[in-house]
Structure formats: structure tokens, C-alpha cells
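Supplementary material to the annual report.
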Amino acid sequence: MFSPEKVDFSTISRALRSHLNHAEFQLAAGLLGGLHIAQTIEHLEALDATEAALAYRLLDKQTAVLVFQELDAPVQADLVRALQSQIVIDAFAQLPAAGRVALLDELPAMVATKLLAGLPTATRQETGILLGYPESSAGRAMSPDFISTHPQLSVAETLERISARLGNCENAQHILVIDDERRLLGTIKLSELLTEPAGTTIGELCTQSPVVQACEPETSAARVVVDRKAGMLPVLDREDRLLGVLTLPMAIAILEDAEERRSAYGSGTDPLFRPYLGTPLRHLVKARVIWLLVLAIGATLTVKVLSSFEQTLESMVVLSLFIPLIVGIGGNTGNQAATTVTRALAMGDVRGSDFWRVLMREVRIGAVLGLCLGAIALVVAGSIFELRIGLVIGISLVALCSIAAAVGGVMPIIGKFFKVDPAVFSNPFISTFVDAAGLIVYLSVAVLILG
Amino acid sequence: MFSPEKVDFSTISRALRSHLNHAEFQLAAGLLGGLHIAQTIEHLEALDATEAALAYRLLDKQTAVLVFQELDAPVQADLVRALQSQIVIDAFAQLPAAGRVALLDELPAMVATKLLAGLPTATRQETGILLGYPESSAGRAMSPDFISTHPQLSVAETLERISARLGNCENAQHILVIDDERRLLGTIKLSELLTEPAGTTIGELCTQSPVVQACEPETSAARVVVDRKAGMLPVLDREDRLLGVLTLPMAIAILEDAEERRSAYGSGTDPLFRPYLGTPLRHLVKARVIWLLVLAIGATLTVKVLSSFEQTLESMVVLSLFIPLIVGIGGNTGNQAATTVTRALAMGDVRGSDFWRVLMREVRIGAVLGLCLGAIALVVAGSIFELRIGLVIGISLVALCSIAAAVGGVMPIIGKFFKVDPAVFSNPFISTFVDAAGLIVYLSVAVLILG
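Predicted assembly:
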């Protein structure tokens, strides 16, 4: 191991600079990891602004906190400005997402809020890369635009303190109460604050609020905001320090995007995220063609199944008349279950651990549905064609509906387990599977009964 | 015609009482319509509280305004209390919805707000019947829980006036500015109010706000609240008098219910509106079985189509191998279009008048998709089976995809035109139609090419 005390300053500085400029961030981080706080600061000061920002971002959180505190205010400001620069963002954006998460520790709360403050919303998502939170996490969606106060201040002092910000803050109706270490103590509504005696201290008034960790998925955080009618949700880092707030409009946007995705995937298209009539035709074709192709390839399975029963079909052509009916009922039963469970997952009503409960429910529902349809089919097809045909269709439907409902019900859960959007994993692909399974069931029953 | 001047008071009063007690509201309204204001008041005073409330509700709006103004404050309060009673609500709830709308004129804004104020949210929807607004209208979903002020008051006067209400009002962040006739002049944010000099008059500060008429559908009103990030939307009656506000949480709930419905109908089930795991099995079966049956009956169309081509199928069994593939691709193409357009309708991106634009777009998209899939099918099926089979499938797919996309695209618009939820009218039923159409196309092309 190299020992920084023994190596002279300029050698390390040269190496550090070279690593940073060649995007060898792992090596740079290793080099920085061997330094004391004082040495780190010395090196940061020797680097140019962009290099210093890159180097700073590679520090572990503990060190980053201590280093930032030691810097003079103007140097702090320079550092934050350099962190906001496109060059620094791009440098880390180029890393693969997994590598980035492994390399970049959480940014200290005080730096993170400074970094986000004043940035337009559009660039905030991109800057989120620097914060070290995964894509589609609450930390990426949060806003630094909130009003805070301290628990030992009085109502009057708070009103004076915040009055300048009230006019231009989007989220002025909730005031966050934080201690000197940015730990959240609670929240208080602006409207409630106005009804309290001027001398009361904030600490007595604020109430606990639901919170979310920055690394949690944005959709579940958005659900909390919308379901609790909370107006906003404080976003905290791993040390429970306040980073920002997830606002209600942002939460709605997140859920609507998720819904757009669910609805599109559920019918086998890519989501558009823009007005239909304003979308060029080629985009609409592009959003659909790959899905159609993949589904068509999946559907060749049905050709395979049918060709293995070609003899049966040849000896009894009447069987082929019911193929679309059987396949259709199976597909519908599967889609019903898949849509219900996909939505239940999105609403948080069903979790991954409910796999067996969902499976057992859907098998039973499918069996009941199959019995209803099968009984009718037995009577109708039995009287129009012949009893044996009615029997084949009736029995097939009982088996098929149970299978289809079960598969449809658990596929979204399986999708979620593999971190694939449950909607992608469900309706269209269930149809493919259920179509083939339905044909196997139908023609096997036919072979059994008709010989 | 009877002339009230000539008939003595007690005769009319007896007739009125009898009509009211026998729920002959049309007759009672006719009787009341022939009276002068002073006579009406006299008769209302002679009736018991419930009868008076029933009679009052049958007055036309103009008369109702004048009558209410003439009553003493305690009598007004008694009347409002009687209007809130379950007996009165039930009496009108029993009328068929269409008859009710024809019979009940809009309630005057000042009575409507008094009627709603203080009622718990749960009973508000039911009381909405009395307001005379159609089901699922903004007037039924609005809340009377808002804070208002007058334009000639100063900031300080307004703050003093509203301070008592700030603590217990859910929607305290927006203050509505109304004139003495309850006409909305604009809104101002509480947080902005606090930053203004105490002496400024409200009239100079308030800004225009989007508004909604009470009779407009709740979903489009909810869209405005959510899209404009407005926080709330003032609800006005036909004379532009303020009735209440549609709050953001309410707007979200409305859109989520609409989404639940869209997602359920789109996959052929009834919406659940409750957690999946908490729903008894028989409810889940009930939500699905009718749809499955209707769809299965629709699918017998495919049996009909196929039996008319039985000879063709008999002479070339290989054709039957591709039935599920053809049917599946058609269904998928139709569903893609239907889902995209259904969502676009819900988001307000597409309107009924866009019928032809959507039709032309979807025909072209379908043709392109059909050409892609058809070309591949031609090559693959042509090489594995024989060229003629490939040709049949390829040509069928071009025609089918165009039809399916076009039908899928316009069905939701047709549904909306007939005031059926576009989602109900789309995916499942499109499949039924497209399945049958696909088989006709496929087997007709086969007859043409294979002879």
C-alpha cells in the first residue's frame, strides 16, 4: 500500500489530476481515500474548479461533510457552482448506472440542498445524478423549494423570517421545522401558524409528518403524498437530514407517468408521454411495431401447437371452428386477472409476499368462471353440434379459465420481483402463453374424449 | 286554467299538501308556479318544515332567490335544515334522474352554499341531488369549505376576517375574492397575501382564476385542477355566482376513479374501487363473469365465420394452423390503437371532432404495421410451408392491421359520442369485432389465392 505521508504533494497531485482528467474515477477515489482531511483540502485547493468538484464528489460522505465545513464560504460557493456545471454532470453521467451507485456515496445534505437550490426544474433531474440516488428515486424527484424554520423560534419570529420567501415559494403552505443539524422535527401549516399566538415557540406547534428516504422509489413516495393528502412529503437522507420535498404536483406527475406506462404496456405499446395528435406517425409506428413483432413471434407458438395436432384437426375439422373462441376466452380471463393485480400492485394493495394468496384466489375465481362458461358451452355447443363437442369445449374451459386466471394473476407479481414493470410483464405476454396453453388443453381434451 | 286569485287559500294549501305528500311533484310545481311571491311565502309558512322544504325546492330559481331573501334569518335557517333532512333528499332521490333534472331548477347560490356548509363529505354527494346538478358533475363534487373575502377590504382587514377560519379550513391556501352578489372576481394565495402591505386593497391583488360551471362533468374539471396545478377550482352556477371549490385531493380522487374504471373496462372487468385482497371472491367473480359471458357470446361470431368457410378449411387444414396467429395480431393492433386513443380522450388531447383525423392516422399506422408484419410473414411462412400460404398470410395482415387500427382508434370516440365510457366501448369489444373481421379477411384471401 502507498503511504501518502511518504510521497510528496506534487506527485499525488499529478496522479490525482491525471486520473480525474482520464475519467479513472475509481483510481482517483482510491487516492483520495488515503488522505487526511487537511491533505484533502490542500489538494482540492490546488486543483482547478472542475477537477476539484470531480474530486470532491468522489469523497465518502463522512469526509465530504468535514471537508465542506472546513472550507470558507466563498470556496464553498465555488465548489457548489462547479458541481452544478455540465462538465461535472456529464463526467458522472457517462458512467454506467450500477458503477455510479457503487462509486458515489450520498452527498451531504447541506451540499445537496445547495446544489439543487436555484436550479430550474428541468435540469434538476439531470443534476440528480450527482446526488448519488438511483434513477426514479424520490431523491431525483424532490424539490429544494421549501420553507423551513427552527423549533426554538417563536411564531412571530418565524413569520418574519419566512416573509421574504413566501411570495416566490411554490410550496409555501407547509413549513418544515428542522434542528441545527437539518434533522426534521415536524411540519406546520402556514394557515395554522397564522392562528397561533405570536409568542408560542414553533417546537410546541409542529406535528410529525410522514417522510421518505431519498433512495426509495419515487412512485411509492408519490403514493404517500397523494393518499395522505399531505400536500408534500419531506425527503430525508440516510442520516434523516432534510434534503428537499416531494411536492403534490410532482407526485401527481409521477403517478400519471406510471399510469401512462401501465396503460400502454398493458396493451402492448410504448408509452407516448405526449399528446396523441401531436405525435408524428413514425413515432406511433415505432411505439407499436416492436411489440407487435415480439407478440407475433410469441404467437408462432400457437402454430407449433396446432401443427402437432394437425392429424386431429384433419380428422375433425369442426374442432377448428372453436379455436378463436377458446383462445379468446382464455385471453380475456387472463387479462382480467392481470389488470386487476397490476393495478392492485400500483396502489400498494398487493405486495410480492402475497404471491400465494393471489395465486390461490385466482385459481378459485378462474375455476368458478370456467364452470359458468363451461356449463353454458356444454348445453349450447352440445345441442347445435353434438354432445361430445359440447363436452370437449365445456371441460376445456374449466381447465383453461383456472390456468389463465392464475397465470394472469401472478405474472405481474413475478414481473415486480424481477424489477420489470409489472404491466410490461403482464397482459400481452399472458395472452401469448395462455393462447398456447389453451390450445393444448382444448385439443388434448378432444383427443381424450373423441379418441 | 285555474286562477289562484279566485281560489281561496285553504283550497290551494290542501291541494299543495296532498301533492307533496303523494310525491306528485310535477303537480305541486305547477300549483306553485301560479302563485305570486307573497302568496308563495304565505303558503310555505303554512306548511310543516319538511313540506315547506319540498315545496321550496320546486320553485324556479328566480322565485327561489326572491323568496329566500324575503324570509327572516331564523326561517331561512329552518328551511336549510329541512332541506338537509333525509326525508327531503329521499323524496327527490326516488325520482328517475332524467325527470329530476327536468323538474329541479338550479338552487340559488346562497342557498346551495348554506345547504352544503357543515355537512360531512360523505353525505355531500347525496345532498347533491337537491342542488339540481347531474350525476358526476362538478356541482356534485364541490366542497363548501373555502375562504372568501371582498375586493374592497384591505389586506389587514382580510387577514383579521379570515383568521378564525384558517385553522379548520382544508383549503386555506387560496382565498376567493367575491363581490356582494357572490360573483367571483379572482383569487389570491394566502402566502402571497402575507407579503403584501397591510393597507393594499384586495381588489388590486387578486388574479383571475380558471373556473368551472357546476353542471360540467367532474372529470374535465378535475383535469383542469391537476393540469393547471391550481390547488383548487372555483365552481360557479349559471349566473357565475360562487358555489364552492373543487379541491385538489377531490380532483385526484375523481381522476383515480376514472382511471380505475378505464383500466378495468379496458380489460373487460368491472372496476373494484377497493383493495383486491380485501374483496370477497364472489365480488371478483361477479365483476368478471358478465363481461366474459358477453365477450364469449360475441366470440361465437368467429364460430359462425369459420363454419361458413368449413369447406375451405377441410380442403386445406394447414390454414387452420394460423387462425390464432392472425386473430392475435389483429387483436393486438386494435388494442394498441384503442388504448392510446382512450387515454388521449381522457387527457383531453383528442376530442369528438377529431374523429376523421384519428381514423386517417390509424389507417396509415395500421397499413405500415401490416406491411412490416406481412413482409416477415411472407418470407417465414413462405419458406417453412409454401409460398402461397406465405402470400395469403402476408396480404391478410396488411388488410387486417389497417382495419384493426382504424376500428380500435375510432371506437373510443364513438363510445364518447354515445356517452358510454370510451373504455367500455373499446378494447374487449374491438377484439370481438376484429377477430371476426380478421377471419373473414384471412379466409377470403385464401379462397382468392388458393382457389
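Chain A touches chain B through 96 residues (CB under 8 Å).
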